[in-house]
Design a protein that fits this description.
- The chain is mainly alpha-helical.
- It is built from 24 helices and 4 strands.
- Helices cover 68% and strands 2% of the residues.
- Strands 1-2 form a two-stranded antiparallel ribbon. A two-stranded antiparallel sheet has the order 3-4.
- Strand 1 (214-217) and strand 2 form a beta hairpin.
- Helix 3 (43-54) crosses helix 13 (280-298), helix 11 packs across helix 23 (557-573) and helix 21 (479-498) runs antiparallel to helix 22.
- The protein starts with a helix and ends in a 12-residue tail after the last helix.
């Protein structure tokens, strides 16, 4: 066993033991503790737990990979996800907390005085959450398969087992305190390697500042900034300039950002976190603290992405472009390269038989004559999965084994924390909204708690199966989950709080129309959009010829939301208004003031 293996098993094992220990200590004994942690979580602690709940494998593992290969264009994720939290803090969290219920479908059912609306909301919630949780399962499998050197399937089973122990036993109470520990693990795991790498490349220990600092080569200032150096490296090999690269059209970037923003504000597993604090004011404070904790990672991600891309290119292109000895010999490739090849997430093909690795953009017609003059027969790095960049970056930069082990633990913490939140949202929608709310209204608290735990187990098994056998429309991206939440849940919550004339017919019609249009668009274009083996958020993006106004499927949630709003208002205008007491309820929810503990009734 190597030193890296020992560190990895030790660090990952210690964090797993911590999570399980917390779950045993914080075991839920009531439905209130299972669904909303008893409603007594301190806003700072809740902000930290919310940050961990939010920063999934997509944030930890994939986002920097997307930034590494999409450059400036990938800023849509930073703007969309952080902007969504501002929307959530200002427009939804305090009002939903004042309403005092356990779940999003329960709010929708009561606000729109309709069991049908509640059921439709449950369906939308499950579709969005299941789509999202598939990405977390892939993140767990990727991390385990490389660093614990077990098959992807085995890694997934281990992750499912850990989640089952602390989520089923602890419910929201156990998950909350586990997520606080997971946040500490993941933020150290993300920032410590970034500090080391920033020091190596720029001499600046602050990654956020290192991104714009001078590039240091062999201990000597190069006269270029790090971003200038990266632009030079990638354009010399036929890739787009890093700092000006966009994803699709400007319209697509705008709509994509908007979809991620309102999708963030509409994700049930995030919203439910604001039901766990004692007062309405605490819901606002929680959102503010969550933004602070999230910003620590999100402001570091651009530096991690840029530095990872530069390290990768410099590892392979070791001399002048086109020089006989300018490319790395395949037989002399470093150990990290060999290890990632074993996972299948990194693949090489010697197309010209020279034994060296040519890594360039062979789809660039302007670079093709140069490549031909060099004797290159095509890009030989036939697969570089974006999801490996954060995990491989410390190895590429030759950082100590304990730092690499910390990154593995961080990636697993990110995936496990979000998976637990999503699975609880699914479980509560089944046990509380369908069973207690619709099917068996007189069920006892003990029976409901048992049903909640059984629902969680079933949700874990389904999520694990879909992680092993992902459906076509969800295999490529968790961003689709944001589109589904944006097109179905966010509009009905907004109208429920700010449009007292909105009735049940409009709400139901809007949800169905919004999510249907979004799903149809995703299914119709999945062949254009999804490229097997690319990052589970989104591959490097061109533009589909038949995209609606150049809008990608991942960005279409904003269009679905517009359809939702439009249909809801049109149907509401030609049907009976809500009862008088519902209209008074909407006005009361918007009046500043406190609220008691969530009742769940």
């Amino acid at each position: 066993m190597t030193a890296l293996d020992m560190w990895t098993y030790g660090v990952v094992g210690a964090t797993f033991a911590l999570y399980i220990g917390i779950a045993i200590w914080a075991r839920a004994g009531t439905t209130g503790e299972f669904y909303v942690a008893g409603g007594g979580v301190h806003p700072v602690a809740n902000g930290m737990a919310t940050a961990a709940d939010w920063m999934s494998a997509a944030s930890f593992i994939s986002m920097a990979g997307l930034i590494a290969f999409n450059g400036y264009g990938a800023s849509v994720f930073l703007m969309g996800w952080t902007g969504g939290y501002v929307l959530l803090a200002l427009l939804l969290a305090p009002y939903l907390r004042k309403f005092g219920k356990f779940t999003v479908p329960e709010f929708i059912g009561d606000r729109y005085y309709s069991q049908a609306a509640r059921i439709v909301a449950v369906i939308c919630l499950i579709l969005a959450s299941i789509t999202y949780v598939i990405g977390q399962m892939k993140g767990i499998g990727v991390a385990f398969s490389r660093f614990l050197e077990v098959p992807y399937d085995m890694g997934l089973y281990i992750g499912m087992g850990i989640v089952a122990i602390y989520a089923v036993a602890g419910g929201m109470k156990g998950i909350t305190y586990t997520q606080i520990a997971q946040y500490v693990v993941l933020i150290f795991a993300y920032t410590v390697p970034a500090i080391f790498i920033s020091l190596n490349l720029t001499g600046n220990p602050v990654p956020q500042l290192g991104l714009g600092s001078g590039y240091v080569e062999d201990g000597v200032a190069s006269g270029l900034t790090l971003l200038d150096k990266l632009d030079l490296v990638v354009t010399e090999l036929g890739f787009k300039e890093y700092t000006t690269q966009v994803m699709g059209s400007s319209l697509n970037m705008f709509v994509y950002t908007l979809s991620l923003m309102i999708g963030t504000a509409g994700l049930p597993h995030v919203i439910i976190r604001f039901f766990t604090v004692p007062k309405v004011r605490d819901a606002r404070y929680s959102a503010g603290w969550a933004l602070v904790f999230i910003a620590l990672l999100y402001t570091t991600a651009p530096a991690v992405g840029a530095m990872a891309r530069l390290n990768l290119m410099d590892t392979i292109q070791i001399g002048p472009v086109g020089a006989e000895d300018g490319n790395l010999l395949y037989d002399e490739r470093p150990d990290w390269f060999k290890k990632w090849e074993e996972t299948g997430l990194l693949q090489y093909e010697d197309k010209n038989g020279d034994g060296r690795i040519q890594y360039y953009n062979d789809a660039n017609p302007e670079f093709a004559p140069k490549a031909e003059s060099f004797g290159w027969k095509g890009n030989e790095m036939v697969k570089v999965d974006r999801d490996i960049m954060v995990l491989a970056n410390p190895e590429i930069a030759s950082l100590p084994a304990w730092v690499i082990a910390l990154v593995v633990a961080g990636g697993l913490a990110a995936a496990l924390s979000t998976a637990a939140g999503l699975l609880l949202a699914i479980s509560s929608s089944i046990s509380h909204d369908l069973l207690k709310g619709v099917i068996a209204k007189n069920i006892s608290e003990k029976a409901e708690l048992t049903a909640g735990r059984l629902s969680m187990i079933v949700a874990i098994l389904v999520a694990g199966y879909l992680g092993l056998n992902p459906p076509g429309f969800a295999a490529g991206t968790v961003a689709i989950a944001f589109g589904l939440a944006a097109s179905s849940i966010f509009p009905v919550l907004m109208m429920g709080i700010f449009a007292k004339r909105m009735n049940k017919a409009g709400a139901i019609a809007g949800m169905i129309a919004g999510i249907t249009v979004t799903l149809l668009y995703v299914f119709q274009h999945k062949g254009i959009f999804f490229v097997p083996g690319t990052a589970f958020l989104m591959p490097e993006m061109g533009m589909g010829e038949d995209w609606f106004f150049g809008i990608s499927p991942n960005a279409f949630g904003a269009v679905g939301a517009l359809v939702n709003f439009t249909v809801a208002y049109l149907v509401s205008a030609v049907t009976a208004p809500p009862p008088e007491h519902i209209q008074h309820l909407v006005e009361d929810v918007r009046v500043p003031g406190g609220a008691g503990a969530p009742t769940g009734h």
